[in-house]
Design goal:
Lyase, Ornithine Decarboxylase, Chain A, domain 1, TIM Barrel, 9-stranded mixed sheet, 8-stranded parallel sheet, 24% strand, elongated, binds pyridoxal-5'-phosphate
Length: 362
Amino acid sequence: MPKRLPFSRELDTPCLVIDLDALEANIRSMQSFFSDKTARLRPHFKTHKCLPIAHKQIAAGAKGITAAKVSEAEVLAWGGIKDVLIANQIVGEAKIRRLVGLARHTSVTVAVDSADNARELAAAARAAGATLGVLVEVDIGMGRCGVKPGRDAVELARIVNSQRGLAFRGLQGYEGHLVLREPGAEKDRLTVEAIRLLARTKRAIENEGLCCEEISGGGTGTYRVAASEGVMTEIQAGSYATMDARYAKVTPEFAKALFVLVTIISRPKKGLAIGDAGLKSITSEFGMGEVEGVKGAAVDRLSEEHTLIRVKGEAEKLAVGDRILVTPSHGCTTINLYDKACGVRKGYVECSWRIDGRGKSQ
Ligand SMILES: Cc1ncc(COP(=O)(O)O)c(C=O)c1O
């Protein structure tokens, strides 16, 4: 049977629930990992999209916040975050105008992987009287954005460095192809290999007489090795704060803090219970999510507004009106479905936070 969930009486469903003790413990424990490292933590906003959580991360010691989009960076800047990295390419006149406008008020750094984009950013920055920080993005094996390590990156760094309006700060390399691998020696070896591509590229850039002060990247699944090699200066981990069912398998040192509260709305037959949260309330991106605290219950399928839950044994006792918690398979694409999150502590509601960056995908 579901564990007693006293807070569920105060809430309607489906509802996004954050366990505040678990969230704060995750923030503390990640931050304390960095206490003896040269790398610093720059948590990614794309996961929680929630200013109160970003402020908790800064208060714990994070150097600044990472964003994925200009519109997220705007939320952060106007929400009082003073140092923002947009770990993506910002392309197109309208976005670049927003970007340089923001850079007049807040320290903004952006990733670049093409000379044309760098020149366009520089011209806009000069016109706005702003300076944009730039990291040259290097593809270290993920096969997404980024120039090749070595000569191509050096050439782009030289171009960025020559542009008035831009401040070349260093490199970005995200080993996204490794973050979800099972922990172990092979994952560590591949992570070190990827990061050494950045180290070699940095040396080549410095040999050209350029200062390459930042090396930014890393995620929840690789932070330990990425931050320990003495190469990275900042780690962009996001999911560690709230966690999700998928990351819980590869980083068990963090506690699950993110749940969707679901009401059982039907028990049509033996072996099946139906909840009121479907694809519009829980992502299916990395699987179905996990039912918490009800032995024998597993989410089988999601339709738009329904959770189809297989039940056996103890879980057959689930009744219409019962409330259960489901941990989503992926926090980032679940949180973005909600206007607000309910913060609970020791079983009771403590706060309701706006998901400030919801839908900020521009
Ligand atoms: C550029 C970048 N940096 C860092 C991360 C790490 O995020 P997380 O810790 O949630 O895996 C991501 C995840 O997609 C990313 O795209």
